[in-house]
Amino acid sequence: MIAIDGPTASGKGTVASRVAGQLGWHLLDSGALYRLTALACLEQGIAADDVGRAAAAAQALDVRFGDGTVAMSGRDVSADIRREDVGSLASQVATLAPVRAALLERQRAFRAAPGLVADGRDMGTVVFPDADLKIFLVASAEARAQRRYKQLIEKGFSANLLTLLRDLEARDARDTQRALAPLAAAHDALVLDSSHLTIDETVAQVMAWWHERWHQRAASRGA
């Protein structure tokens, strides 16, 4: 299995999806689960500091992942969970221990043959500490803000580059400084800076590392 962690808008979701596609493996977008929880909270009027109700919302999620789509309670919410207000609240509810506990086993249940590529912020440190390959994907805040701006504009959403940059920096601070499962590279993770790489180049590097790791393991088994 491959775990890919990194900050908001580092491209880990797209990279994980393409790597999973090339390998023919299952895919876990763990961030989507937190965004779904945030969306449920927004729709139910649950405040970010209402720990009990937020955890209950996470526990009760009726989620279905399809071919590039995400459904909640039978409704396609693929676009809704990518809204900036949802992403901002997701970063806040992700600091709540009961919410993380509610989603932990749900994430681990995605691990199945022939393999899994999981992306998030604590895949290699907490959820799948025994992953065969751990990647920590980073990019400068400026590069990530530019990417997010382009994505939003292409999807027809209004966006302000400076506002996005400030929001990313605030999320980075929350994610790295939270007491529970902070965003950090696992001690055995390979760090990949994609600031000046295309998605294709980033995917190629991850695949190269995976094939190298696979051959190393095969050689050790045959020794």
TrEMBL record:
| Localisation | Cytoplasm
Q: Reaction catalysed by this chain?
A: dCMP + ATP = dCDP + ADP; CMP + ATP = CDP + ADP
Q: Which organism is it from?
A: Pigmentiphaga humi
Specify whether Ribosomal protein is a keyword of the entry.
Answer: no
Q: Can you cite an annotated GO cellular component?
A: cytoplasm
Its chief place of residence is cytoplasm
- What's the top EC group for this one? transferase
Q: Where is the Cytidylate kinase domain?
A: 2-209
Name this polypeptide is given:
Cytidylate kinase
The record's family statement is: Belongs to the cytidylate kinase family. Type 1 subfamily.
The record ties this protein, via InterPro entries, to:
Cytidylate_kin, Cytidylate_kinase_dom, P-loop_NTPase
> Which residues take part in binding ATP?
6-14
Keywords assigned by UniProt, alphabetized? ATP-binding, Cytoplasm, Kinase, Nucleotide-binding, Transferase
UniProt cross-references to Pfam families, sorted A to Z? Cytidylate_kin
Protein's GO biological process: pyrimidine nucleotide metabolic process
UniProt EC number: 2.7.4.25
Q: Which CDD domains match?
A: CMPK
Q: What is the lineage of its organism?
A: Bacteria, Pseudomonadati, Pseudomonadota, Betaproteobacteria, Burkholderiales
